[in-house]
Amino acid sequence: MDFKYKKRPLVVTALCLLLALVGQACEEFEYSPYEIRLDEDEKNINGKNIARIESLGLAAEDTMHFVLTADLQGFYKENEEMVKSIRGRGDVDFVLVGGDLTDFGLTKELKLIHQDFKNLGVPYVAVIGNHDAVNNGQQAFKAMYGDYNASFVIGNSKFILLNTNYIEFDKQVPDLDWLEKELIGSSVYENVFVLSHIPPQNYEFGPEKSERYFQLISQYNVSYSLHGHNHSFKEFFPFDGKVPYVQTAAADDREYLEFTVIGNKINYERITF
């Protein structure tokens, strides 16, 4: 009898250990590729990083450096090397990501990008791309990055983030009324940058919306209209030729753009890595 009673605690201990391991496995198990389960640092990334950018406290006369990249989708080796390149420059204040962080709009893809970009050493913000908006990617992106449209101010510059994924959002975007409200209040800033994924000359921007976009960008003297999507670098001057439109290359082209802003003087450089 004594022998049996001595064994029972061992059995109970083993059972408890087994249950604990099963519970841990359940926490780590991905029930579906479409589930959205996030750690705290993976929520509201744009909101948190915009606060970090604004807290840099750059004055109007200070020099500002920011990077533009886009179309990271599945290029994990190149993304990791790009992060090292940006961090190694030592002068970058923040990074703009012009959409298509993913191929299939999956939460896991967004998480992998965030794991890399946390190593930048500086804040980054992202707009949603057309690939990010497929499957349940719209919900995943919003859960991780926040509102599809946003803006922030640093120094003498205003940055506007605009969702231009016309097809994936049932032709309801871009919201040009919202954009105009943001631009109306931007005349007090020396520089205004509008960032979106799909550029307005592409059909996927919305053929009935592109003309008004061109007009707004020109009317309110936007400094640069910034884009990704086409996986190649291009600078062009559509509409009335007043405003430069720049699209950056994809990550697998091993290139990004670094902008330098001094007062109202803006230059950019194509950086290879």
UniProtKB/TrEMBL annotation:
Domain Calcineurin-like phosphoesterase intervals: 64-232
Signal peptide range: 1-25
Keyword Cytoplasm carried by entry: no
Pfam hit, one: Metallophos
Coiled coil location: none
4Fe-4S keyword on record: no
UniProt keywords, alphabetically: Signal
GO MF assignments: hydrolase activity
PANTHER family recorded: METALLOPHOSPHOESTERASE, CALCINEURIN SUPERFAMILY, SERINE_THREONINE-PROTEIN PHOSPHATASE CPPED1
Protein name per the record: Calcineurin-like phosphoesterase domain-containing protein
Species this chain originates from: Pontibacter oryzae
